[in-house]
Specification:
298 residues; alpha/beta; Arc Repressor Mutant, subunit A; D-Maltodextrin-Binding Protein, domain 2; 3 domains; nine-stranded mixed sheet
Length: 298
């Protein structure tokens, strides 16, 4: 099927919603489960939409379906339009947003959001805060949650970004340790951040000996240091609440600033309404503030 569309204007909304679900899931069966209908009903609506548009949107094969080039091009347009329609409907016909949903890596939610949850909810009695843990940074591309807490340089297509904190690294040990931290085992955190060699160059000291513990998560490195497993070149951002609680302590005055930061981001269309913009402003303000300790709560 190809050629000029047989109709003008927009196709029925129900067909577009079914197409979006089928494209998102990559098969008709999952889309049928989402809508509580049969696979045959989903397939029929897709055929109706293809006839309306005059183009094939899916390639049907024995092992399932996949989007055509036209389908791949159309899917993000439909997703953006449905999202904007849902948000606009909520903004116009509800008193205020009822949910603040935030996605992030587990260590970022733990280090940045959780110590500030009480501040997030202050003055927002009707808001329910919901978190979505993202397993890997690459998974953000498929994450539908509006608010993202992310680490990097702040450039993600189609999203507004606000810098929360610049990343700084500093040697840290368990709060109760009183000896010479240079004698403690070294904990390394793999990834894009600079490591012990770069910190040693900054501090003008010899590089520490080889590490016995190596983690791919800053959160894991901080927890290992808290439990007395050694000294970590820790994030002063993610470790701020642990330092404030006395569970961790910096063991050197020398910090290493990096070229990366923690950001709050959301889709460009999300803050088109004043209500959602106010929510984004509030969340940005709270996440930029120091963490609130339990004994400082009113």
């Amino acid at each position: 099927m190809s050629g000029t569309a047989t109709n003008r204007g927009l196709p029925p909304l129900d067909w577009l919603r079914v197409f979006e679900a089928a494209g998102r899931h990559g098969n008709f069966t999952a889309a049928a489960e989402e809508f509580g209908t049969s696979q045959a009903a989903i397939s029929q609506r897709i055929r109706n939409l293809e006839t309306w548009l005059g183009r094939k949107l899916f390639i049907r094969a024995a092992r399932g379906v996949s989007l055509t080039v036209d389908g791949e091009s159309y899917l993000p347009l439909v997703q953006d339009a449905l999202t904007a329609l849902a948000q606009g409907t909520e903004d116009l016909f509800t008193a205020s947003p009822h949910e603040m949903r935030i996605a992030g890596l587990d260590s970022h939610l733990t280090g940045l959001l959780l110590p500030r949850i009480s501040s997030c909810l202050e003055g927002l009695p009707n808001i329910r805060l919901v978190t979505d843990s993202v397993p890997k940074r690459s998974d953000f591309e498929d994450e539908k949650t509006a608010f993202h807490i992310r680490f990097g340089r702040g450039k993600w297509p189609g999203r507004i970004t606000r810098r929360l904190h610049q990343e700084e690294l500093q040697p840290m040990v368990a709060g109760g340790f009183d000896g010479d931290w240079r004698e403690r085992p070294i904990i390394t955190v793999r990834g894009e951040r600079p490591g012990w060699q770069e910190w040693s160059n900054q501090a003008g000291v010899a590089a520490p000996r080889s590490a016995r513990l190596s983690f791919d998560s800053m959160g894991h490195g901080l927890v290992a240091a808290v439990s007395g497993q050694g000294v970590v070149l820790g994030s002063t951002v993610l470790g701020a609440h642990l330092i404030a609680l006395g569970a961790l302590k910096p063991c050197s005055d020398v910090g290493l600033m990096t070229d990366q930061a923690y950001w709050l981001s959301w889709p460009e269309t999300f803050t088109a309404s004043p209500k959602r913009k106010a929510l984004a402003d509030r969340l940005t303000e709270v996440l930029r503030a120091p963490p609130r300790l339990p004994d400082t709560e009113e």
